[in-house]
Design brief:
132 residues, 43% helix, three-stranded mixed beta sheet, CBS-domain, single chain, 6 helices, alpha/beta
């Protein structure tokens, strides 16, 4: 199974110049745990609820802090045609739970460890059904 088969296509993004307050409001409004930080259509970082809690609230920083100051900028991405096993290995080796999906450097989706686990469970269920 390919990453493009399980990814979320409507990825919520934010500018690196936005404030952390704007990021928090966007995550709350969309009931999501992360935003991909983009310049144009190119992903340059990711901001998560954990970043908000650990890097802003716990350190007593202002919510006016810019996203670019807090985001994880060592962004790992994966191509849409990659196998989900490749995505799982990349996540495991970098201890991350989310991977922006790109096509020619352009953000087109996001895949999470939960997406991969669901896909693997469906695959297992299909295989066991074939042999019963």
């Amino acid at each position: 199974m390919k990453v493009k088969d399980i990814m979320t296509k409507n990825v919520k993004t934010i500018s690196p110049n936005a404030t952390m307050e704007e990021a928090a409001q966007e995550m709350r409004k969309n009931k999501i745990g992360c935003l991909v930080v983009v310049e144009g259509e190119k992903p340059i970082g990711i901001i998560t609820e954990r970043d908000l809690a650990y890097k802003i609230i716990a350190q007593g920083k202002s919510l006016e802090t810019k996203v670019r100051e807090v985001m994880s900028s060592d962004l790992k991405t994966i191509e849409k045609d990659a196998n989900i096993k490749q995505a799982a290995k990349l996540m495991a080796s970098h201890v991350i739970r989310r991977l922006p999906v790109v096509e020619k450097g352009k953000l087109i989706g996001i895949v999470t460890i939960d997406d991969i686990m669901r896909a693997e469970k469906i695959g297992e269920d299909r295989r066991s059904y074939q042999y019963t």
